[in-house]
Amino acid sequence: MDIDRVENWAFKVFCLSTIFITVFSVQAIYNWPPLAEKLSIFLACTLPIGMIILGRMGLWLKTRQISKEFIWLLLIFIFGLLSSLQSENQGASLKSIGLFFASGPLVFFTAKTLFKSENNKESYLWMISLSLFALSLWGIYEHFSLGIVYIFSRNPLPAGALLIMLSVGPLILLNRPNTMFVKLTLALSLLTPMILTILMAKKSHLLGLLVLLTLLLIFRFRIYFKFLLGFVFITGIALFSSDSLRAKYKNIINVPDPLPALSPSNGNFKKQNLSFAFYGSIPLRAENYFFGFHIIQKKPIWGLGFNADLDPFLEDYKLRLGSYFPKERYREYLKSLNTFENIILTYLVEWGCLFSIIYFGGVIHITLAFFKATKETTIRRMDGVFVALIILSFSIMSLTFDTLRYPNLNWASHTLLGLLACFSDKQIAEK
Fold it and tell me: For the chain, N or C: smaller number of CB within 10 Å?
């Protein structure tokens, strides 16, 4: 069987699956009939890898070589399955780990195989660049018509994170020799999501964007200093011209007059004087670390499983930041979200230390392997650096909400991880 021909078709299916997962996966989970939801997402995730296996099975059996990435995937699957079987709600846990594996690690293996072709890389980068521009325009329309941006995610947080991840396309393509028209188009596809991120005024997005711009300045100061100036300029114009946007940013950074708060006679200033937007959510998230480690100490190996009841663990737990909120309020907060708003902490609690160490350890190894592979080269491959910087920015955002619970973010992040692994392999081959 002609492997190149099969994988050419597999790449086309992968691109269609990428569009489907980006636009429809979250809607399918919440709104579609159960059978249609499961079947559509299952096919989108497994068709590309199924075609790759069909084309390469003979070669794998002949060479009898097993890649490190395949072993990593196998370990993730085994320990995820074992953790699910140890949980109280096995059905929900199996469904959750299945969705994560199919739209995450499996996509990484697919992307790493398909992106060995330079043509596939180039086509994918152009596809996500145009998609980024289209999604940004749709998001701007949602902002002005609905007052909130979803971009097919049912939540502004994954919507903004998706825009930052897709920006890897124009970032890489702008680094290539192109005509002035193409460069202006790519610059516009970067500027539009930046404008939308400012309009959304979400702390996690602004943090991720600032981290990304700062890292870009370190690697390419002259080029991306203009984008930083543009970011500051656009933010200033937006705040000057929009009362509602100015109110959003004021709510983010609103710090009351410190004089009454610092008064020696005001012993309860933490509760009474400090705004909840700035000082309310931060203590809750900080408390999550203490409570999360409290649970991990009791269930270190296999975790609790997906959507587990956390109430029993609150009974013997003493709040570390109880001066900011009572225990009952923290209990209601946990019930309303059923998450620790930090993907690493959430996975440690849900799936246990063994699964989390294997999974996150593998992600860190792949990222560090790229920099190790490029360390001794005379010219650093900026394509891979851009991917690594986007992954780092996404990792920072993952400390503020559970990114990988959204299949569109899970798919996009593991696609970038597969792309980064391909750049590492290419650098090693060129040495």
Answer: C
Q: Residue 389 carries which side chain, given as an amino acid letter?
A: L
Q: How many CA atoms lie within 13 A of 169 on its CB side?
A: 28
Helix (H) or strand (E) holding 204: helix 203-219
86 burial level (CB within 10 Å; 0-12, 13-18, 19+): middle
Residue 48 falls within a domain, yes or no? yes
Domain that holds residue 358: 3-248+341-430
- Residue 267 backbone dihedrals phi, psi, to 5 degrees: -75, -20
323 inside domain: no
If you average pLDDT over residues 249-261, what whole number do you get?
A: 49
The verdict on residue 238 lying in a domain is yes
- 209/205 Cα distance (integer angstroms): 6
Residue at token pair 């991917």: 387
Are the beta carbons of 119 and 15 closer than 8 angstroms?
A: no
State the average pLDDT over residues 118-138.
95
69: its two tokens: 């990435």
288 CB neighbour count, 10 Å cutoff: 21
Nearest to 202 by CA among 148, 137, 165: 148
More confident residue, 403 or 246: 403
Total structural domains in the chain?
Answer: 1
| Residue 313 maps to a domain | no
**Secondary structure (DSSP) of 155-189:** SHHHHHHHHHHHTHHHHHHTTS---HHHHHHHHHH
* Integer angstrom CA distances of residue 119 from 3, 13, 128, 316, 382: 15, 15, 14, 58, 18
Give the whole-angstrom CA distance, residue 225 versus residue 234: 14
Question: Please, what's the b/e burial string for 371-381 (b: 16 or more CB within 10 A of its CB; e: otherwise)?
Answer: eebbeeeeeeb
Token pair belonging to 136:
């940004």
Q: pLDDT at residue 252 above 80?
A: no
Distance CA 99, CA 126 (A): 27
Please report, as a single letter, which amino acid is at residue 337: L
d(CA 110, CA 10): 9
411 in helix, strand or coil? helix
Place of tokens 């490190």: 68
CA–CA dist 420, 329 (Å, integer)? 43
